[in-house]
DNA sequence: GTTAGCATGTAAGGAGTTACATGATTTT
DNA sequence: AAAATCATGTAACTCCTTACATGCTAAC
């Protein structure tokens, strides 16, 4: 049941697995990663942290982790339950995992999962994008073509972007399959595009 | 005061300027354009249409526009007030106009505005993306570099995508400036990328 | 005749933004 | 001493999605 809101939770758990952090720092990092557009406000982050505290997924880091006195800040760390929840969420491969934001977060923490999961996520995302492409192209074929140059250019650019994303995913999938050797990646490179 | 919710309104007004349409048809077209990800649900569209009806931006198309009987459907068309509102919204160039969805909609209906506005929107969007790029690169330089390969790959891909978008915008800006001649566009083309 | 798609809506609820509120610390 | 930015939070509100509810029409 990976709902939309679990995305922040997943990201926070993932980041805290890289070391204890306080809210402000988390927000900065979050904005850097899911940052190509969306900016997460304090009004979402802090309530989310409180909720995670209540659910015992994270806890305040007590004791003097910081040398000497520091400014007022609450440093969080994951609990054992948080670690379990993180693993559970990461291996929960479903439609929600192919969505833009959710996919990015999962990818960012791919090192925490095994190859089987990684492939399922990458392939799932790829077919979802491919479906979109097909659907749009099919519907555009049905409707009488638009003549507006800007509409046409926007559409061309959109299709191109998605196609690039699909190629990127294909390369990654090949890389995953080709494990240690570089061969698969190089092979994928040549099939990418013919020279103009 | 272009808020987020005005995006649907802008899109609906724009589409209805291309001809009268009913809600179901509007949704299909909307999903095709702002469609690379987001899908607009009926639960957002129909209430939005009702609201626009109340504000006299659109009206039900009465009379027999359709030859002979058809199935139950409500065909909308823009009112005079709606046309004014559309012009007003389109020329309202502010931060909201550089946002992903809002930008796409504006671009889609660029033919309805003059070059001055188009350039302001394109340049605004470009500097916004450039700022993002700079900010991210600056902050990444400050923080000690991450070593995780997936995190690094995601970041590389993100930077590349935004850079492509910036180049696309630059080409469009040049094309706008080069008005009737193809020279500017062709010139921009060569600066795009060197051959591998 | 029954499935698939057309067509319109409503109610409840979630997720996140905006705006507000506060204060410490570092830099200029 | 002022400005920037670090740091944490709350309340109201908006937008939108999900799920539900209904019924027609075309195709198989």
Write up what this structure looks like:
The structure is a homodimer of 196-residue chains. Chain A has helices at 6-16, 23-33, 42-54, 80-91, 100-108, 115-142, 149-177, 183-192; strands at 21-22, 58-60, 75-78. The N and C termini of chain A lie far apart (46 Å). In chain A, helix 6 packs antiparallel against helix 7. With 196 residues, chain A is mainly alpha-helical. Chain A is built from eight helices and three strands; from the N terminus they run αβααββααααα. Chain A has two domains: 6-66 and 74-108, Winged helix-like DNA-binding domain superfamily/Winged helix DNA-binding domain (Arc Repressor Mutant, subunit A, Orthogonal Bundle); 114-192. Helix content of chain A is 63%, strand content 5%. Mean pLDDT of chain A is 85; it is low at 183-188 and 190-196. Chain A has a three-stranded antiparallel sheet. At the A-B interface, helix 2, helix 5, helix 6 and helix 7 of A face helix 2, helix 5, helix 6 and helix 7 of B. Chains A, B: Keywords: Coiled coil, DNA-binding. Chains A, B: This is DNA-binding PadR family transcriptional regulator. Chains A, B: Residues 12-87 form the Transcription regulator PadR N-terminal domain. Chains A, B: Pfam families: PadR. Chains A, B: InterPro entries: Metal_resp_DNA-bind_regulator, Tscrpt_reg_PadR_N, WH-like_DNA-bd_sf, WH_DNA-bd_sf.
């Amino acid at each position: 049941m990976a709902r939309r809101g679990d995305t922040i939770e997943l990201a926070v758990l993932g980041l805290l697995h890289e070391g204890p952090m306080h809210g402000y720092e988390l927000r900065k990092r979050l904005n850097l990663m899911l940052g190509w557009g969306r900016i997460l406000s304090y009004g979402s982050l802090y309530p989310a942290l409180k909720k995670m505290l209540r659910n015992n997924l994270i806890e305040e880091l007590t004791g003097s982790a910081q040398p000497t006195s520091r400014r007022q800040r609450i440093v969080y760390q994951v609990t054992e339950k948080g670690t379990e929840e993180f693993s559970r969420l990461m291996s929960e491969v479903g439609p929600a995992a192919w969505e833009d934001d959710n996919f990015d977060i999962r990818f960012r923490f791919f090192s925490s999962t095994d190859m089987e999961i990684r492939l399922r996520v990458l392939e799932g995302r790829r077919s979802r994008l491919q479906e979109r492409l097909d659907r749009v192209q099919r519907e555009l074929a049905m409707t009488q073509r638009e003549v507006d140059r800007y509409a046409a250019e926007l559409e061309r650019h959109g299709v191109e972007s998605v196609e690039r994303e699909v190629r990127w995913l294909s390369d990654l999938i090949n890389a995953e399959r080709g494990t240690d050797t570089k061969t698969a990646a190089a092979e994928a490179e040549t099939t990418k595009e013919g020279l103009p």
